[in-house]
Amino acid sequence: MRDLVVFLLLLVCLYVIFWRPWMGVLALAVFSYMNPHCYCWGPMFAFPTYQLLFLSMAAAFLTERAKQDMQPIPKDWRVAVFYLLWFWYLITTIDSEIPSAAWGRLILISKIYLPLIFTLIYITDKERLRYLIMTIAASFGLLAIKGGVFAITHGFGDRIYGPRGSQFYDNNQFAIAILMNIPLLVLWLRDEKNKFIKLALMAAVPLSFASSLSSWSRGALLTSVMLTFVLLWHSKRKYLVAPLLALGVFVVLPLLPQEWYDRMYTIETYQEDGSAMGRIRAWADAWEYLKTNPLTGAGFEGWRYVTERDWHNSYVEMAAEHGYVGFLLWFSLIFGTIITLTRLARLGRSRPDLKWVTNYSTMIRASMFAYATGTLFLGLAYWDIVYHLIFITLLLHRFAHQEAAVPLTAEPPPERTATAGGRPPSSQDLPEPEGKTKQRGFGIANIPGSNPTR
User: Fold this and answer.
1) How far apart, in whole angstroms, are the C-alpha atoms of residue 392 and residue 397?
2) Are residues 35 and 133 in the same domain?
3) pLDDT of residue 162
4) Do 56 and 95 lie in a common domain?
5) Residue 272 confidence (pLDDT)
6) Which residue segment(s) compose the domain that 386 sits in?
7) What CA–CA distances, in Å, run from 185 to 116, 124, 125, 288, 362?
8) What is the pLDDT of residues 215-243, one digit of tens each?
9) What is the rounded distance in angstroms from the CA atom of residue 257 to the CA atom of residue 195?
């Protein structure tokens, strides 16, 4: 049954791609982040759904409808740095310590990066950007709701994992992805008008925190603490949110099993924890290796050559695998985007009509903060969601400055005076333009199916 549902969903997405090519960006986001095919037990689990969607997008790109629905890739420093980083991956792969593993990893990452270009081409206005953010938030949000309900009903005794076979399957990585998504849910909540959807989003946020707690991830715990303070800082109702937050903590803490507390306490006694000390040794090995190979590093999967276990730190991962050049390119993308979002938030506060810019920029920045914190404990340097947020910031910067270029005030229309008898003026009291006769009854606007605005 699951396979049939996912197959029908895939058919709908394929139709939509050729009908409205920009919606293909949303379809790619659904299958990349929610991974509905990963919950199938039949042939759809191994079916190359994402590749088929990408090929359909590439085919639709050549149609006349798509050409009318796209824009040139924006000229922005982030695009240039992204391409440079991608090219640098090729250089480090050529000079890698384990070529067979490095080339396979480069091909896989290129498959992740390439579809992201469609975001820059097809998301041409603020409304489409809003739908993209909503799609990403809903894709992760549904998984978070499922995980949160499971965690609460099982007393947080079982670990929560992501879709099997996906890049978010690991419990630690899934928790960071859920935490990165919480600010997007809050952003959607602020924009949403439908009261039922607002209630669902209000439930999704605490369930997302519950899901991350039940991952039993120490890195996710530290990230959730940081994210909570950031969201509280940006909350418009701090005096209401803070007591509710305290109440939630008071209710949840007794539900957590003792084994969960024992694992979290190892953050303080990391010297006695084999996992933590293994990571520290891997970081030390990476530092020693960089002393002799500072330019290109060890290439993809270089930890197999340099040390005994995975890096478990994206900063170390980028430096050790791609040298200081790759690290600086990647670092500039992450923190340059955070700086841009800070400036956009300031721009949004300068004019009342740009309030939406502040809402978008502060919440996307909170997501980037969650990534920058969580990635201290996990190797997440190649995640597509972070590059998606970088491109979303690029588009937000463009749309915000387009609106900011329009003057805030316009010349007011001439004031109408009351007619004889004191009634307010109507369109019938206005003089007709010369050469035209006043039309009564059924005009062109009254003909069914007509559209005078076209």
Assistant:
1) 9
2) no
3) 92
4) no
5) 64
6) 76-404
7) 21, 22, 20, 42, 13
8) 999 999 999 999 999 998 888 777 777 88
9) 36
